[in-house]
């Protein structure tokens, strides 16, 4: 299985899928990861299999095709829900990549299908992630520079720039990359890093920030620093 850094490099958004059931081993791995993310992230993520209505119709037309499986990213309403959805959802996305599956974050291009999943009255769907075997070669998007999104330089540790480079490969809504990562020095003997979202007319910056922070941790090494 590829490493997480290799999965970050290989991942791209997939909108077209082959009609093929997911292999049992892949489903078991995804469900185990979803259970872990639900527990650690206080979320209600659900895997929906063999369901063709969620990404069909006017909203999905011309964008998605062949989607028969998807992940419902949901949880109780809270100010930090979107960031948690991004952080833990991207863990599932990278695992899917390691399993040879394609994915795509979808903020709008889906519809809620009655009976496909269950939520209580205090929960909401933040977004969905399409899932399956790719029928889409994908393409690399233009991204900002390390200098555009961070204060990395000669005075910052080498691992910090590695983290920023991994963060630049994170999927963000319409590839907006509205984030900034700052090396904040040493506090109580620990390196400190601060990440913040920037203003966007598109929105989804909190969710994007969760995804970006996960990528940074993978690239930088989570044990090298603490978030402030």
Write the layout of secondary structure elements.
Layout: H1 4-10, H2 24-41, E1 46-48, E2 69-76, H3 81-98, E3 102-106, E4 123-132, H4 146-149, H5 158-167, E5 179-187, E6 190-197, H6 205-220, E7 226-227
Parallel strand pairs: 6-7
Antiparallel strand pairs: 1-2, 2-4, 3-4, 5-6
What does this structure look like?
The strands form 2 sheets. The protein has a 4-stranded antiparallel beta sheet with strand order 1-2-4-3. Strands 5-6-7 form a 3-stranded mixed beta sheet. The mean pLDDT is 95. It starts with a helix and ends with a strand. It is globular, with a radius of gyration of 18 Å. It has helices at 4-10, 24-41, 81-98, 146-149, 158-167, 205-220; strands spanning 46-48, 69-76, 102-106, 123-132, 179-187, 190-197, 226-227. It is built from 6 helices and 7 strands. The chain has 228 residues and is an alpha+beta fold. Helix 2 (24-41) packs antiparallel against helix 3 (81-98) and helix 3 (81-98) packs across helix 6 (205-220).
What key phrases describe this protein's structure?
TM1586_NiRdase; alpha+beta; oxidoreductase; oxidoreductase activity; 7 strands; four-stranded antiparallel β-sheet; Nitroreductase-like; 20% strand; three-stranded mixed β-sheet; Nitroreductase family protein; 6 helices; 228 residues; 32% helix; globular
Strand order of the largest sheet: 1-2-4-3
The secondary-structure class comes to alpha+beta
Largest sheet: 4 strands, antiparallel
The share of residues in helices is: 25-40%
Termini separation? 33 Å
Radius of gyration: 18 Å
Total number of β-strand segments? Answer: 7
Helical segment count: 6
The run of helices and strands is HHEEHEEHHEEHE
Q: Which percent range describes the beta-strand content?
A: 15-25%
What general form does the structure show?
A: globular
